[in-house]
Design brief:
By secondary structure, this protein is α+β, with helices and mostly antiparallel strands. It contains two helices and five strands, in the order ααβββββ.
Length: 151
């Protein structure tokens, strides 16, 4: 799209100068309009290039750092395989600065992720969608008959 903008700008300058030089005044507004169109195309191309594209997928956790005891949130580093439409399987290191300990992942967990892609389709960012994960249930208490007073 950028090449098209440069081509239209060049043709607009040529048409405008041709109209002035040959005193055919119809070509001057055509040239000015072409230059404005080229500027608009250049702006749209730059905005589209800088706007990140995101894809939703899942990540299977291969390894994860240990959850620290006695905290509510902690930093988590995990290695995961990403599965998303249009992205080949690849292993990524995901570093999350604030993970709820009650939702701490373990190996082989499937986590919902949002993958940020650049204009060329390369992975730029992987973000785990923690708000879509149900908190883990507390482990069931083991029955101890001595606590009932019958033993």
């Amino acid at each position: 799209m950028t090449y098209a903008a440069w081509t239209i700008a060049f043709l607009g300058i040529f048409a405008g100068l041709f109209g002035v030089g040959s005193q055919r005044w119809l070509f001057v507004p055509i040239g000015i309009g072409s230059i404005l169109l080229a500027a608009g195309l250049a702006v749209v191309a730059e905005v589209r290039r800088r706007t990140p594209r995101t894809v939703r997928g899942v990540a299977r956790v291969l390894s994860v750092s240990d959850a620290p005891p006695g905290t509510v949130f902690a930093r988590c580093t995990m290695h995961a395989v990403i599965d998303a439409p249009g992205i080949p399987y690849a292993t990524f290191t995901v570093r999350e600065p604030r993970v709820p300990v009650e939702e701490w992942p373990s190996e082989d967990d499937m986590l919902p992720v949002e993958i940020g892609l650049d204009a060329m389709g390369a992975v730029r960012r992987v973000r785990v969608l923690w708000h879509e994960i149900a908190p883990r249930a507390a482990p069931a208490a083991v029955y101890d008959p001595s606590e009932d007073g019958f033993a």
